[in-house]
Amino acid sequence: MSAAAGDVSWPPLPAHARTGGRPADEDEAAERVLTRALGWLEAHLEWFAPPRWERFLPRRPFRPGPLLELVGLVRVLEQTGVLPRHAPLSARALDLAAQVAAGADFGHGLARGDEFFPYHLNLVALLDLLGRPQPALRAACQELLAADAGGHARPYKPVVNRIELRYFIDRGGFTAPASLPDARTLHGQSIAALGPDLLQLTESETYALTHVLFYMTDFGRHRRLPGGTAEAARLRETVQVLLGVHLSRGSLDLLAELLLCATALDDGHGTGPTARQGWNALARAQRPDGAVPSPVHRPEVMSGLSGEKAAAYLFGTCYHTTTVAVLAAAVRRRSLRLLPRPQDRRPEPPLPPLPCADPEEIRSWTRKAPEALRTAPPGGRAVWSSYLAPLLVLGVQARDPAVLADVTRAADRLGHGDHPLLRAAAALCCARSRRPPG
Questions:
Q1: 3-state DSSP call for residue 33?
Q2: Are the C-beta atoms of 57 and 312 separated by less than 8 Å?
Q3: Residue 98: Cβ within 10 Å count
Q4: Helix runs in 130-194, H state only
Q5: Coil vs helix vs strand at 287
Q6: DSSP characters for 203-218?
Q7: CB-count burial class (<10 Å; 0-12, 13-18, 19+) for 269
Q8: Coil, strand, or helix at residue 63?
Q9: CB within 8 A of 13, min separation 6: which ones?
């Protein structure tokens, strides 16, 4: 495996990607994230109102976008038993959403039937489901759907967008246009069903995968995937690898989304060692006020601001990741009720930490792994081996031949030298290394 030195590229790591201290029990870490993040959302509810947002932050293309995310969260919180609809956070969020829906700006935006029509429809549907019906707006949505406003149901539209629309329609009890296939058919055309290339999966493609799984499982409410148990098993493995990749990178946004997916796909055997570390990573990165920073949050920028400018920056760069972290934790709590674990469950043994996406840390891990297996407790071999695939993905995407060579050697020593991902990585790196003459 060779590559030009200038091709090697390891993106800078956020401070929270570095592990430190003894990890907490997974339940403790997840509940800490949930409780503190809910408190932050409630304390910052006013910022979800579009006029408040726009005093300091750029106007959103779909103005109530953050509020729509919050109302979707309210539904999941009610379904999972975390918060009833009449709790202060939920009730105030629904008040805000009803006020927005009653405004002329929302009605005009809906009537345009443009690229944001699915989000108008979704807000109307969620308000209906949560006891704040909007009959006139609902009728307008159905009429626009029948007219195929925006062409969102057309076969040339991205499949993840059509799955999203179908989910909004079915959940909201609308009649779908004849040109829009059912969810099962659309799923068969999606990234989840067609088997993504883990070695070359981009961030946007990873987001597409997580959202397909959100919609196809109704945010973990059921586990009935069209491909049955075989597809669910394949997707569980895919999500586990991606969890490791984004845990190593400290990508909190995707980490939270993948934790939700891991829970949604859990067949009763648990979500794996990277999930425990993932919840600890979220808890470790969580600010003292409960916010979970997004990838665009910069503490050094925050430190230079004060007053409402600081509050606006904090909200704009934290609300989404905080919301997704709450979603994932709420879905996890429901899953524990539906898939109970033994009452005499023993304390979780210490886990060897997955190295962060730093070439020296990964190479150090590969040197230690074979020797560490000699003293590993039962099941330790599986934990160490489960780290190989994400580390391989990181090395391939960084185009780092030294890391790839060390991961390959470690895989051989751990008895995984014939893993298909290793063969694919070797072929890809060999093809990349062939430079055209001249």
A1: helix
A2: yes
A3: 18
A4: 135-146, 159-172, 183-188, 191-194
A5: coil
A6: HHHHHHHHHHHHHHTT
A7: exposed
A8: coil
A9: 249, 250, 356, 357, 358
Query: What are the pLDDT digits (tens) for 82-95?
Result: 999 999 999 999 99
What domains, with CATH codes, occur in the chain? 25-337 (1.50.10), 353-433 (no CATH)
**Widest pairwise Cα distance in the chain:** 70
Residue 308: alpha-carbon gap to chain centroid: 29
The 10s digit of each residue's pLDDT in 322-376 is: 999 999 999 999 998 887 665 555 555 667 889 999 999 999 999 888 777 767 7
Structure tokens at 277: 């570390």
Give the model confidence (pLDDT) of 1-15 as tens digits: 444 555 899 999 998
Q: How far apart are the first and last CA of the chain?
A: 21
Q: What are the distances in angstroms from CA 300 to CA 44, 304, 378? A: 22, 7, 44
Report long-range pairs for 188-192 (Cβ below 8 Å, ≥24 apart).
188/226, 189/159, 190/159, 190/160, 190/163, 191/159, 191/160, 192/216, 192/235
Are the C-beta atoms of 168 and 118 separated by less than 8 Å?
Answer: yes
CB 328 within 8 A of CB 248: no
218 token code pair: 């109704």
Q: Considering the entire predicted model, what is its pTM?
A: 0.94
- Distances in Å between the Cα of 407 and the Cα atoms of 364, 426, 432 are 10, 11, 18
Average pLDDT of span 168-192: 97
Within 8 A by CB and 6+ apart from 148, the residues are 154, 177, 179
> pLDDT class for 272, splitting at 50, 70, 90?
confident
* Confidence label for 36 from pLDDT (cuts 50, 70 and 90): very high
Distance CA 228, CA 77 (A): 27
* Mean pLDDT of the 215-240 span: 92
Mean predicted confidence (pLDDT) in 202-215:
97
The answer, yes or no, to whether residue 105 has pLDDT greater than 80, is yes
| Residue 48 DSSP class | G
Pick from 350, 299, 332: nearest CA to 37: 332
Amino acid symbol at 327: L
Kindly state the tokens that stand for 197. Answer: 């290339």
Q: Provide the 3-class DSSP secondary structure of residue 270.
A: coil
Which residue, 311, 314, 213, is CA-closest to 254? 213
226-240 mean pLDDT: 91
